[in-house]
Amino acid sequence: MHRLKISTLSVLVVFSALFSIGCGSPEEGTGTAMNPVAPAPVNMDDPVTAAIFQATVQITQFKQGALLAPAAVEKTGLAAHSVYAEVDVAYGLGTLVASNGEVLLITHDHWPDYRGIERPDAVQFHDRDGRLLLEMSGDIFSRHVLFRDSGTLIIQPPQELLSGDLVPAPLGHIGRVAEGHLVTVVRRQPGAPSRLDLIQARVEGVDRTAGLPQIELRSLNGETIEPGDSGGGIWLEGAYVGNLWSTVRMAIISESNEAEPILAATDQSTAAGLTAEVIHLVDQLQAVQGLPPEGDTYLH
After folding, report:
1. 145 closest CA partner among 82, 59, 257
2. What are the tens digits of pLDDT across the range 73-114?
3. Residue 260: CB partners within 8 Å, gap ≥ 6?
């Protein structure tokens, strides 16, 4: 006999370089999918699909912890003469959007969760195929932050991200999103998390009662949102309208082992919608905030 509970978990992933913690790595996921679904082929000839991928980047944050004790090094089987530090890694997605003649990079803001990557040591940006675009120090990354509210993080992107094949996307408005609308969601590709994938979802509701509007989503074909998908763009009619925040997982609790429930992935997730007021605030911040000069502030 099993009892079912519904729990909501952040979709950010943070893990140790030597052992998984939190909700695991993108390769592992955090539970068992109720109805596993193979990703459908993505039509790159579709202009909307191409535009979504051209505006999306993968973001990886690194935080070095304390040096491992000799006993911990021995357990890993690594060479005894080497010095190893525990490294936390957090994955997410971001979208370049155009707003009033400026370019913004929008992602989620629960990077500090699990192991507390509040200020990373280094940040990497990759394209949709996992190719490294830019690496910068965590201090410089933090100085590019324009806005954060514990759910959405808005950054003034480094010029290096704008000089390649990336193309900022048009910014939509949450007022256009309503229950029943079909939206496109960006996630990491199952089985190949260094690449990106698109799925379709139906809007099941929009909660505008507090803070940024929250968009409740259900994928059309049973696909799930997994660790590392946080920040993935929500698109309506070719325009960006929000970013992934969280996913709903079903906790299956066995009477024989209630202390260790099995978290099963569902087809439900929650996204944050952007309002005109937030974008106006960011535009004002851009006008007054002094940002670091480009050049030797980057790792490469």
Report:
1. 59
2. 455 444 444 455 667 888 899 999 987 788 999 998 776 554
3. none
